[in-house]
Target: PLAC domain-containing protein
Amino acid sequence: MRQQRVRILKTNSRFLSASSWWTGEWSECSRSCNGGLRTREVLCKRRISAVEEKVLDDSACSSARPSFTEPCSNHSCPPEWLALDWSECTPSCGPGYRHRVVLCKSGESGDTLPDSKCPKNGRPTSRVRCNLQRCPPPVWVTGPWGECSARCGLGQEMRSVQCLAHTGQPSNECLEHQRPAAMQQCKSKCDASLPCKDVSTVAYCPLVLRFKFCNRPYFRQMCCKTCQGH
Model:
């Protein structure tokens, strides 16, 4: 019985050992170039059986603690493309584009280099299509009324009428039945001191008299001299 206990103690003693440092696998480097760091786990352990180890405080290991970091990827980075932020969509409605600045940067100093120094195939795009919202339709735009054609009584006044897009450019997409009037009748206050004469641009005054239209205010005004006394 005593011999069996001694045999068991000797067997167990083979698995008991002094504390020692255990190191894990190195991690990936924090950078692919221009110098980075990689890390690993470092623990102070003691084996207490064939299949079990116990983690101890670092002070339990008497030897120097192995490093848990080391430098890596110390070679210089090659030149690379740097894309800045996208601009607003232009124009503000309808089909448009966003733009951004794309620079070739030195991997080592960060200085801007000629585009030829960076890989041609890897250049980021500097323009993309965009469409924020549908543009408002063209509208009829009218100008102010001009002067009345008659200095006394009834006449006509005119104004400009244009179909304009939201950009202010002329358009032909306005609805014709919504077109505002470009001409309308007007009336000027008569001045008794003004001479009575036919409007120079009117050639039909003899016909007005012949067909007895002088009793109509418009024709009496346009053909004042001809209609005088009738």
About this structure: Confidence is low (pLDDT under 50) at residues 1-13. The first strand starts at residue 20 and ends at 23. Residues 2-13 form the longest helix (12 residues). The chain has four domains: 20-72, 80-132, 139-188, 195-229.
